[in-house]
Design brief:
single chain, 379 residues, alpha+beta, DNA Polymerase III, Chain A, domain 2, 3 domains, 16-stranded antiparallel beta sheet, 7 helices, 42% strand, elongated
Length: 379
């Protein structure tokens, strides 16, 4: 194997795949990037057996074809460190040599035939969607995914695929995030999948690297199989593992009778939470919200007797009430809402709260967040 490629092009391809390379694994071959030159194309692949990324480029001069697994730990930082310009890559016996100018790396390789085979795409089963929509929906929900390994289904995001819509749902039993969009696509009649979140988090970077079309969109083709959901974006393919269910019936926990609604400036809310949380109890992370006409009072008390208070304006004309939340969960929700204002819908101090973004036009954004309250002292 021998080829020449510009440093920028080589680095871009390596950076696309390296993030799925595991740093610790009982299978040393997985710490490598699979590099294959065939025809006029270089293909790079990486996998951790749960998620895989394949990318390629034809912007190179091929001297001879070949296939080899190269340890990523030294190859990738070396290529990043090279000056712009031509890079020569050649396989000499069991060693690979990478040369840029007067700089040279010689590294032992691993056997390409030991690298796990990556499943090809089912080309006839794909359907196309604007990649930025998928990125927004993943960002709307992935912060609420559980880290509890005893409940593996909650470590994924539920995809409810319908002929005219897509809904993504994540929950850790303390909070829930739902994002729904109308879709004009050639999707199957109905399909529910629990998709591994660690894999989906690669999609924003892959979509961002893709050039937009004439309409400013970045089309992504989605492919479904029994055990993985795959995305093709330009030259890059991402395979993400599907998890076994069942996923909880989230519809059953979304309240329909929260009749107290207040509208708040998101930025002011986040800053007030940041200030009062300084004295919040480290175990419960509780802050107290006191709501009455035209305002919200925030307060927190520590076990050492310290306390803090703050007040912000709120559009509210209902009866006064108090409710407590874990401030970290509340901040996570607010930080992942893209509008300047939010609506907080409440029933009482013991019932789940709903938080929705408020668009400038007042239209529904399709995003809904649920947060369970904390019992207030004395209740």
């Amino acid at each position: 194997m021998k080829f020449e490629i510009q440093q920028e092009e080589f680095q871009k391809a390596l950076d696309m795949v390296v993030n799925v390379v595991p740093t610790k694994t009982p299978m040393p071959i997985l710490t490598s990037v699979l590099m294959e030159v065939e025809g006029d194309r270089l293909t790079l692949s990486a996998t951790n057996l749960e998620n895989s990324i394949i990318t390629g480029t034809s912007q190179l001069a091929v001297k001879s074809p070949g296939k080899v697994a190269v340890p990523a730990g030294k190859l990738v930082p070396f290529v990043r460190s090279l000056r712009p310009g031509k890079v020569s890559v050649s396989l000499k016996g069991q060693d690979i040599q990478v040369v840029g100018g007067k700089t040279r790396l010689t590294e032992k390789t691993m056997k390409a035939d030991e690298y796990p085979a990556l499943k090809p795409l089912a080309e006839k089963k794909g359907f196309v969607v604007d990649g930025q929509i998928l990125v927004d929906m993943i960002n709307d929900t992935n912060y609420a995914v559980s880290r509890d390994e005893t409940r593996p289904a909650l470590m994924g995001i539920l995809w409810e695929i319908r002929p005219d819509s897509l809904s993504l749902v994540a929950t850790d039993a303390h909070r829930l995030a739902l994002s729904t969009r109308a879709m004009d696509w050639d999707a199957p009649d109905q399909k529910d999948l629990i998709v591994r979140t660690s894999g989906l988090r690669h999609l924003p970077r892959i979509v961002a690297a893709m050039e937009a079309d004439e309409e400013g969109k970045r089309p992504v083709t989605v492919f479904m199989s029994n055990n993985q959901l795959s995305f093709r974006s330009g030259e890059t393919i991402l395979h993400v593992q599907i998890l076994e269910g069942p996923f909880p019936d989230y519809h059953a926990v979304i309240p329909s009778d929260n009749d107290k609604h207040l509208t708040i400036d998101k930025g002011a809310f986040i800053q007030a939470i940041r200030r009062v949380s300084i004295t919040a109890d480290r175990m419960s992370s509780q802050i107290r919200l006191g709501i009455e006409a035209g305002r919200m009072e925030l307060s927190a008390r520590g076990t050492d007797g310290s306390q803090s208070e703050d007040e912000i304006e709120a559009a509210y004309d209902g009866e006064a009430m108090e409710i407590g939340f874990n401030y970290t969960y509340l901040q996570d929700i607010l930080k992942n809402i893209r509008t300047d204002s939010v609506v907080l819908s409440l029933k009482d101090s013991q019932s789940a709260a709903l938080i929705k973004p408020v668009s400038e036009s007042g239209d529904e954004t399709g995003v809904l967040c649920l947060l369970m309250p904390l019992r207030l002292a004395g209740d």
